[in-house]
């Protein structure tokens, strides 16, 4: 097990970063978020040409046979660019749900010909996987509602866990209602099924699926934090007040040094979670990285001064992503609460309270 | 030289020297065999071998007499690399062997009452008198001065030039007349540190390290070799100071509260990501790609140790203290003492070896590339600086 990046991972990072620099600069993301956030053309290129959609899928099922390490590097880059593509929702969450079933849909997902979404609330967690879901299955048809589903707007097919079983529903057979979301670059929607025709795919351990999602979300949060830190460093070196760069004031430098230290530790936590996606590693990575992404994004807004408060500057996209991701797949508090039993740090129980 | 060759050397050495015999003889022989610090030159305790081979030697010689890394820390970590870089051949031959074997203990005469973070402003004067220098001044925070045979000393030899340019570096004879060591009592009650008063101390010119006026550059070498605090990183999950807190937590359920539970879980997570960061740093170093992460480790550990030891006191609800007696401590016995002692001693973690504020400046300027504060003291002769 290593906490470093492999050469293959660095090559993958370089190709994703180059593509995003060309096709997904912050200004372009900002331009599309209010009309049609999901950039499906870009997703076709990422999925088909670079092959990111099949990273977690074994070669014999049509994928690249890579692993969480490679997927983590892709998510770092997607986080750095707040790229509005359904990688986490389709190529991680939906794909991981399908993997044990070895369903033929995996091949189509790997090639990027189809895109899936897991019809589970993004606010659910490995500890409360049912949060936000109320769906029942009757005679091969599904009825009910799931709130807060991420990636449903970009999906051709919805994967719906009901009572430990996984069903596939064509997106056209469900009603996907997207209201305004806090995260402009990964909006959530309410998905309603009314006797929707469903195909039974196999068994589904939803907590395990959400745990892998949480492990990889930590890498995306790292990417968000890195962009915010680097962009802020660039700004405070350029911005002059009192006839000197504002980044020469110790009040600013010390805050940035502390943030850097938080990000360094977030990188170690993210790499540990992809190298060993155990319950403890994932809880640690989420408990730390979710908070770091929010903290660095908040400081980025503050240290940009007035311009940071404008719609025109992209930093708000990162703040919104960071704050939404803090809730996604379990809050830091949920993950810390899980650690209490995982690492034997019991609560007060019968003690003084 | 590779791992197999080093192992062969160690085997040859062990064939000729009995580890069960006289400790000092064994250590001297180990030095002479070049197995003290393999990356040092031949004849000076080394073999001119790659530094990573040292761990092979340490493994092979793990069951033989060992040097005292704690008491000899300043000699090994700071004096030795400086002597190696700036010493004359004669100085290297005179000092390095007894330094390594521990026959001669070293201390560091750098900080002064008026020069802490701003070391270059120090005021201890050295004035030339023929082949000798006469030193007058006061040093402070000197760990182990009461054991020391020698000290590394920075003095001011030219007050008429800006502060960084008028310094000269010496080896100070701690047995010379005029050297007075007084214990400095700490907030814990005991004295690990000393004040050292230098009054008319005469040092011969052959104790000078480096050129006259080049003391700042020599001192930089010393400070850069000050050990990265990574040595303090626990290698197992929930180890180090956290282990002490967790033991108490598990043994005393009646003292647990919801508020403490939430805070402990947060600290546990911070300790764990800090440990992972240290593990990642060690991997980088082993792969020959040292990253800037090292600069942050001491800062992280200082903050964590202080938070954890403070938590421990609060959790225990003990209003007592184990022992305020004013005594000279040989070594820091962090875990052998009570929570109150640990809480107070950990306050030094953000001061010793560079304050956390200075470390943040270093990270900000050298790692993040942020501009330095405007300086008013750079081009002013030292004697004209406000003090």
From TrEMBL, chain A:
<dbReference type="Pfam" id="PF00441">
    <property type="entry name" value="Acyl-CoA_dh_1"/>
</dbReference>
<keyword id="KW-0285">Flavoprotein</keyword>
<feature type="domain" description="Acyl-CoA dehydrogenase/oxidase C-terminal">
    <location>
        <begin position="210"/>
        <end position="336"/>
    </location>
</feature>
<dbReference type="InterPro" id="IPR036250">
    <property type="entry name" value="AcylCo_DH-like_C"/>
</dbReference>
<dbReference type="InterPro" id="IPR009100">
    <property type="entry name" value="AcylCoA_DH/oxidase_NM_dom_sf"/>
</dbReference>
<dbReference type="GO" id="GO:0050660">
    <property type="term" value="F:flavin adenine dinucleotide binding"/>
</dbReference>
<comment type="similarity">
    <text>Belongs to the acyl-CoA dehydrogenase family.</text>
</comment>
<dbReference type="InterPro" id="IPR013786">
    <property type="entry name" value="AcylCoA_DH/ox_N"/>
</dbReference>
<dbReference type="InterPro" id="IPR009075">
    <property type="entry name" value="AcylCo_DH/oxidase_C"/>
</dbReference>
<dbReference type="Pfam" id="PF02771">
    <property type="entry name" value="Acyl-CoA_dh_N"/>
</dbReference>
<keyword id="KW-0560">Oxidoreductase</keyword>
<keyword id="KW-0274">FAD</keyword>
<dbReference type="GO" id="GO:0003995">
    <property type="term" value="F:acyl-CoA dehydrogenase activity"/>
</dbReference>
<feature type="domain" description="Acyl-CoA dehydrogenase/oxidase N-terminal">
    <location>
        <begin position="6"/>
        <end position="91"/>
    </location>
</feature>
<dbReference type="InterPro" id="IPR037069">
    <property type="entry name" value="AcylCoA_DH/ox_N_sf"/>
</dbReference>
<protein>
    <submittedName>
        <fullName>Acyl-CoA dehydrogenase</fullName>
    </submittedName>
</protein>
UniProtKB/TrEMBL annotation, chain B:
<dbReference type="InterPro" id="IPR036250">
    <property type="entry name" value="AcylCo_DH-like_C"/>
</dbReference>
<dbReference type="Pfam" id="PF02771">
    <property type="entry name" value="Acyl-CoA_dh_N"/>
</dbReference>
<dbReference type="GO" id="GO:0016627">
    <property type="term" value="F:oxidoreductase activity, acting on the CH-CH group of donors"/>
</dbReference>
<keyword id="KW-0274">FAD</keyword>
<dbReference type="InterPro" id="IPR006091">
    <property type="entry name" value="Acyl-CoA_Oxase/DH_mid-dom"/>
</dbReference>
<feature type="domain" description="Acyl-CoA oxidase/dehydrogenase middle">
    <location>
        <begin position="107"/>
        <end position="191"/>
    </location>
</feature>
<keyword id="KW-0285">Flavoprotein</keyword>
<comment type="similarity">
    <text>Belongs to the acyl-CoA dehydrogenase family.</text>
</comment>
<dbReference type="InterPro" id="IPR009100">
    <property type="entry name" value="AcylCoA_DH/oxidase_NM_dom_sf"/>
</dbReference>
<feature type="domain" description="Acyl-CoA dehydrogenase/oxidase C-terminal">
    <location>
        <begin position="213"/>
        <end position="368"/>
    </location>
</feature>
<protein>
    <submittedName>
        <fullName>Acyl-CoA dehydrogenase</fullName>
    </submittedName>
</protein>
<dbReference type="GO" id="GO:0050660">
    <property type="term" value="F:flavin adenine dinucleotide binding"/>
</dbReference>
<dbReference type="InterPro" id="IPR037069">
    <property type="entry name" value="AcylCoA_DH/ox_N_sf"/>
</dbReference>
<dbReference type="InterPro" id="IPR046373">
    <property type="entry name" value="Acyl-CoA_Oxase/DH_mid-dom_sf"/>
</dbReference>
<dbReference type="Pfam" id="PF02770">
    <property type="entry name" value="Acyl-CoA_dh_M"/>
</dbReference>
<dbReference type="InterPro" id="IPR009075">
    <property type="entry name" value="AcylCo_DH/oxidase_C"/>
</dbReference>
<dbReference type="InterPro" id="IPR052161">
    <property type="entry name" value="Mycobact_Acyl-CoA_DH"/>
</dbReference>
<dbReference type="GO" id="GO:0005886">
    <property type="term" value="C:plasma membrane"/>
</dbReference>
<dbReference type="Pfam" id="PF00441">
    <property type="entry name" value="Acyl-CoA_dh_1"/>
</dbReference>
<keyword id="KW-0560">Oxidoreductase</keyword>
<dbReference type="InterPro" id="IPR013786">
    <property type="entry name" value="AcylCoA_DH/ox_N"/>
</dbReference>
<feature type="domain" description="Acyl-CoA dehydrogenase/oxidase N-terminal">
    <location>
        <begin position="8"/>
        <end position="103"/>
    </location>
</feature>
């Amino acid at each position: 097990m290593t906490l470093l990046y492999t050469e293959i991972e660095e090559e993958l990072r370089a190709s994703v970063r180059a593509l995003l620099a060309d096709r997904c600069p912050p200004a372009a993301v900002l331009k599309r978020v209010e009309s049609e956030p999901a950039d499906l053309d870009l997703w076709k290129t990422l999925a088909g040409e670079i092959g990111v959609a099949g990273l977690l899928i074994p070669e014999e099922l049509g994928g690249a046979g890579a692993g969480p390490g490679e997927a983590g590097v892709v998510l770092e880059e997607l986080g750095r660019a707040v790229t509005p593509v359904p990688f986490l929702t389709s190529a991680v969450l939906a794909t991981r749900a399908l993997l044990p079933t070895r369903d033929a849909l995996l091949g189509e997902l790997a090639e990027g010909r189809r895109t899936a979404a897991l019809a589970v609330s993004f606010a659910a967690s490995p500890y409360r996987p049912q949060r936000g879901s109320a769906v029942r299955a009757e005679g091969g048809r599904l009825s009910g509602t799931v709130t807060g589903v991420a990636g449903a707007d970009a999906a051709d097919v919805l994967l719906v866990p009901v009572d430990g079983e996984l069903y596939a529903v064509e997106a056209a057979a469900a009603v996907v209602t997207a209201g305004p979301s806090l995260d402009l670059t990964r909006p959530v929607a309410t998905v309603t099924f009314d006797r929707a025709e469903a195909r039974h795919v196999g068994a589904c351990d939803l907590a395990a699926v959400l745990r892998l999602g949480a492990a990889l979300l930590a890498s995306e949060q790292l990417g968000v934090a890195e962009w915010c830190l680097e962009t802020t460093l660039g700004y405070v070196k350029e911005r002059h007040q009192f006839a000197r760069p504002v980044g020469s004031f110790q009040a600013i430098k010390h805050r940035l040094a502390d943030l850097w230290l938080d990000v360094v530790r977030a990188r170690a936590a993210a790499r540990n979670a992809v190298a060993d996606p155990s319950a403890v590693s994932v809880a640690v990575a989420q408990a730390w990285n979710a908070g770091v992404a929010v903290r660095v994004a908040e400081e980025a807004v503050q240290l940009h001064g007035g311009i940071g408060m404008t719609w025109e500057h992209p930093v708000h996209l990162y703040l919104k992503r960071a704050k939404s991701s803090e809730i996604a797949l379990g809050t830091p508090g949920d993950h810390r609460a899980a650690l209490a039993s995982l690492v034997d740090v019991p609560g007060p129980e019968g003690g003084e309270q | 030289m590779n791992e197999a060759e080093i192992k062969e050397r160690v085997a040859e050495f062990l064939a000729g020297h009995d580890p069960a015999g006289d400790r000092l003889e064994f250590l001297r022989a180990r030095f002479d065999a070049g197995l003290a610090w393999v990356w040092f030159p031949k004849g000076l305790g080394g073999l001119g071998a790659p530094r990573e081979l040292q761990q092979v030697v340490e493994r092979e010689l793990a069951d033989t007499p060992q040097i005292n890394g704690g008491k000899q820390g300043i000699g090994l970590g700071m004096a030795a690399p400086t002597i190696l870089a700036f010493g004359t051949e004669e100085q290297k031959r005179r000092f390095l062997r007894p330094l390594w074997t521990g026959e001669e203990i070293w201390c560091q005469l750098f900080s002064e009452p008026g020069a802490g973070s701003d070391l270059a402003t120090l005021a201890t004067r050295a004035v030339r008198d023929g082949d000798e220098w006469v030193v007058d001044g006061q040093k402070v925070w000197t760990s182990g001065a009461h054991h020391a045979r020698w000290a590394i000393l920075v003095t001011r030899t030219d007050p008429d030039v800006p502060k960084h340019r008028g310094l000269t570096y010496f080896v100070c004879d701690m047995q010379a007349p005029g050297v007075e060591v007084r214990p400095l009592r700490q907030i814990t009650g005991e004295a690990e540190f000393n004040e050292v008063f230098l009054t008319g101390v005469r040092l011969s010119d052959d104790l000078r390290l480096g050129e006259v006026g080049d003391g700042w550059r020599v001192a930089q070498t010393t400070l850069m070799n000050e050990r990265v605090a990574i040595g303090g990183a626990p290698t197992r999950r929930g180890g180090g100071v956290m282990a002490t807190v967790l033991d108490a937590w598990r043994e005393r359920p009646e003292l647990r509260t919801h508020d403490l539970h939430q805070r402990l879980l947060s600290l546990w997570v911070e300790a764990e990501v800090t440990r992972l960061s240290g593990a990642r740093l060690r991997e980088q170093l082993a792969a020959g790609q040292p990253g800037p992460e090292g600069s942050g480790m001491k800062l992280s550990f200082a903050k964590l140790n202080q938070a954890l030891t403070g938590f421990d006191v609060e959790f225990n609800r003990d209003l007592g203290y184990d022992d305020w007696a004013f005594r000279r401590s040989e070594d820091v016995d962090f875990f052998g003492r009570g929570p109150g002692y640990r809480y107070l001693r950990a306050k030094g973690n953000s001061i010793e070896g560079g304050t956390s504020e200075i470390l943040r400046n270093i990270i900000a300027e050298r790692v993040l590339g942020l501009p330095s504060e405007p300086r008013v003291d750079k081009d002013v002769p030292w004697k004209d600086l406000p003090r």
